[in-house]
Amino acid sequence: MKIFVALVCLVVFHSSKCAKILGVFPMPSPSHYILGSSLMKGLAEQGHDVTVIAPFVEKNPPKKGSYRQIELTGFVETHEQRRKEMKFFEMEDINSFLVLPIFFYVIGNVTEATLSHPNVQELLQSDEKFDAVIIQEFMNEAHKGFATHFNAPMILLSPIGACAWVNPLVANPAPTSYVPDAMLSYSSQMTFTERLTNTVFHFYTHLLYHLFNFPKHARLYNEYFPNSLPFYDALYNVSLVLLNSHPSLNQPVPYVPNMVDIGGFHINPTKELPHDLQQFLDDSKEGVIYFSMGSNLKSAEFPSEKRDAFLNVFSKMKMKILWKWEEDVLPGQPKNVKLGKWLPQQEILAHPNVKLFITHGGLLSTTETIYHGVPVLAIPIAGDQKLNAHRIVNEGFGLSLGYKEISEQTLTEKLDELLNNPKYTKNAKKRSELFHDRLVGPMETAVYWVEYVIRHRGAPHLKVAGVDLPWYKYMLLDVGVFILIVLLLSLYIFCKISKKIFSLCSKSKIQKVKRS
Ligand SMILES: *[C@@H]1O[C@H](CO)[C@@H](O)[C@H](O)[C@H]1NC(C)=O
Ligand SMILES: *[C@@H]1O[C@H](CO)[C@@H](O)[C@H](O)[C@H]1NC(C)=O
């Protein structure tokens, strides 16, 4: 099989139709993996020869092209243990300023564990060649070494779109006056205090990056890629950033030419539902609420008073509820509630009887609900979920309920409003139309741009000159200081001259007075 693929590669190589592409997606969280593996599968489907470094194994690798997996064994277990220790449902209270150091710590560990992993070491010791390296951008800066090590153009995949972690690498402008940081739960219309916090947070992030994260990753980089380009040269040598975002999903923001929106690329054509689910959804003419808190937050870990609030509200409803519940039994399960440990989310959201989605508001869930035009009750907990929840409320296709506010009364109020006011469904359908109205689909866009970068050997002509400027020049501090000095100097000279003139005048006056 391998030889056959190599032959096909040779035959069609000159048209860049078949390239060798390495994907580095080390985050041990299913939603991150779905993004990385979807992209690599899409590239393999186009006949490319892909290699994927990830903590998970693909059960149904694509038939076309070649799809090789380098498994980061042990990552999932470590993550599961950490997930339990960190108690995700309590993350809501953590101050945004503290989240960054926690991320640095956890992801620094993931970054090093990837580099030292025996399966990865085996690849690095080999004399393999790649035409492009796609790396997930998630504070794992030392992994830029994969691109320099294989001397291949570097493509980044940003799971949350343009953000403070990726913008500086390609000098993308993000004015703090209307672009809120992903870690703060602001909308694009910020009050004075919010703009102040956003600006302070922006500088705080950059300071922390330059004081802690970059130096730490420079050490890792130098240790694992001792013969490659210097770390800071590699860091800013990004050919392309693929953004998991789209104006139908996120607020519109500026992009430099080597940033491309591919939000929604992970969504496949809907498959068939398992028989029992199909029957359940078909039979539920009164409508179904789909309830899932995603893969990191498990509904089964809700404290009992929150769980009881849901159960009491659900048991009084006529509608059916389909709940992603990760355990065998739900104490006090009402008759109209159906449970599933794993549920095919996209296929469920596609069903016409599904009227509402109760979600944590993660980006993948938000994208999928917009794709299918289903209104939302968001219960955001951490990360970018609050930002997404703000968007959901602003765009009018759903409501948001704080985790701490969950009670029988608040739930009843929100659900009553969402299910009886047709505006939410109407707005969800409108968002869905905007999502689908594109020149070409998001996966085709992604494949085109990856091939483009390979065809044009890193496409350096797309880079804006701002990448090469030191920060004080980028922020025009030198020009500002110069103007300030000129102004002060002029003022000084003006004062001196006026003093002189004044004293001359008064002297001549005195003399006049004396003479008279
Ligand atoms: C990462 O953390 C795990 C568990 O906390 C630990 O066992 C492991 O040694 C750490 N790895 C590195 C490379 O720091
Ligand atoms: C940047 O990357 C390209 C490959 O895309 C490589 O040819 C070039 O040498 C790199 N330049 C620097 C300064 O790192």
TrEMBL record:
Source organism: Zophobas morio
InterPro entries linked: UDP-glycosyltransferase, UDP_glucos_trans, UDP_glycos_trans_CS
Listed PROSITE patterns: UDPGT
Broad class of enzyme this protein falls into: transferase
Leader sequence segment: 1-18
Compartment(s) of residence: Membrane
CDD domains recorded: GT1_Gtf-like (cd03784)
Protein name: UDP-glucuronosyltransferase
Family statement: Belongs to the UDP-glycosyltransferase family.
Catalytic activity from the UniProt record: glucuronate acceptor + UDP-alpha-D-glucuronate = acceptor beta-D-glucuronoside + UDP + H(+)
